[in-house]
Amino acid sequence: MPYYIGDVIQDQNKLIARTPEKFRESGIDVQISARVEGIDPARGEVSLQDGRIFPYDVLVMATGTSAFVPDMPGLDLPGVVSLRSLEDAVRIKTWLREKNAKRVVTIGGGFIGLEMSEALSAAGISTTIIHKDPLPANRWDPVLSQMMLEELQAQGVKFVGGASAQGVEKGTSAPLRVLTDRGDYEGDLVLLAIGVRPDANLARATGLKIGTTGAIAVNFSQQTSIENIYAAGDCCESFHRVSRRWVNVPLGDIANKQGRVAGRNIGGRPMTFDGIVGAQSFRLFSLQCAAAGLSEREAIAAGFSPASHVAWGSAMAPALGMRKIGLKLTADRSTGRLLGAQAVGAAGAVGRINALSVALWAGMDLDQVGYLDLAYSPPFSPAWDIIHNAAQALGRSL
Amino acid sequence: MAKNLVIVGGGAGGGSAAAEAKRNDPSLNVTMLEQGKFVAFAA
Q1: How much is the CA Rg of chain A, to the nearest whole Å?
Q2: Domain range enclosing A42
Q3: Which of A65, A111, A164, A345 has the most neighbouring CB atoms within 10 Å?
Q4: Residue B24: its chain A contacts at CB < 8 A?
């Protein structure tokens, strides 16, 4: 959706994988503007706010997320928005165009806020990012976050780190002003990008078990605590194969897989969704940013004793040039098992994390990762890839 | 009688579940309920 708002994707219909008509052609009835009032699991009925009742034999909860809205004054002013649904995206794009917007203030420097700064820049709109921590993208190693910060600055994005937003009011040089403990910032639009929360209110009211993450608890078949009710997507938990804990990672690729697995089980061809390793990526102007597995803090919380190393290298053989990539690996001190990976840099960073996701899935240790058979040729890597170098360097330090 | 499958939410998870259930069991009556105006959109 950020790419739609930035006009990189011009047609909103390109974001729609399947239209209601397409669903209907395949025999699926789609009701839009259908707000659910409640679910009666004993009778097997869903009731809508408009009074209609839909009886079910099997139900799927796919209620997604709601944007996390902080507690501060002025958030009801027109032009203060969050980005959760395609409707939000259309509303934001219309607002930016109608107001001939030049400046946006984003509260939150996580990956949505960062992605949006690139998208808005492509549309000729400058961004100020207000972030509570000194560096963007909290889960990342500071040296990699520093690289992101330098890229933001090089691209003309103003990053105000270590700042706490305290409210929004009407501005003087622009319609809105964000007040922080590190100065005030004006813009035509204020974007709240502090994060999302699983939307589990309906599930809770229905009596479904909610996990410690606040998302709906499911088993590997995507069934909830009530046998004929399944859940899929951002509203439910996933099993993290590295931490061995149930987590909530609201990403569309995971939602697709969980939905498809639920559909297989409901349709009578059973299968399981075996979990995730927390792989994710985003682009920040010329930088690829990707991570998989656990950060050090998450590794400690999961009972590991982590050690890390950041390696710097190139995504091509030195004789051909430099394509700088920083790669951080985290492993368990006692077993040498790979626990996490983060990469920031030139083209090739995301591909390396994809390879390391498979290593994480397979539970490989650093000796195995350090000698993995990767697709070598000089335009794409030195003979020793940065993955090999990073794994061997971390292995030697354990 | 054919079973009724109701899906609450028409995003990526709901849309995928609806399509895959119907693909595997064409006899299902599938209804997808979406509170907004769009279904199966990409974030």
Answers
A1: 23
A2: 33-62+200-266
A3: A345
A4: 263-264, 266-269
